[in-house]
């Protein structure tokens, strides 16, 4: 992978950032700034500003964790 990106099985999937309670699409796992530890880069499902979080704070969104649509 380029730009120091790390592979992750949830890339492109909706996940929950348990550190903030927000949900987003996992766009990349890569170092941020001078910190060599990889961070998860998330994009809100409807678009907007990306944010970063620790990879350990990710939980995949599944039919069990997603509330039923009414």
Compact summary:
Helix content is 0%, strand content 44%.
Keyphrases for this structure?
5-stranded antiparallel beta sheet, 5 strands, 0% helix, 70 residues, mainly beta
Average pLDDT across residues?
87
Strand order within the widest sheet?
A: 4-3-2-1-5
Low-confidence stretches: none
- Taking Cα atoms only, what radius of gyration do you get, to the nearest Å? 12 Å
User: What's the helix count?
Assistant: 0
What structural class do you assign from the helix and strand content? Answer: mainly beta
User: How far apart, in Å, are the first and last alpha carbons?
Assistant: 40 Å
- Please provide the count of β strands: 5
How much helicity do the residues have?
under 10%
Output the helix-strand order: EEEEE
The biggest sheet, with number of strands, parallel, antiparallel or mixed sense and barrel status, is: 5 strands, antiparallel
| Strand residues, percent | 35-45%
Shape: globular
Oligomer: single chain
């Amino acid at each position: 992978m380029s730009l120091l990106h790390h592979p992750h099985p949830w890339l492109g999937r909706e996940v929950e950032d348990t550190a903030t309670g927000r949900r987003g699409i996992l766009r990349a796992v890569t170092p941020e700034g001078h910190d060599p530890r990889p961070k998860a880069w998330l994009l809100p499902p409807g678009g907007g500003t990306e944010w970063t979080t620790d990879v350990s704070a990710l939980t995949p969104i599944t039919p069990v964790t997603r509330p039923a649509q009414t």
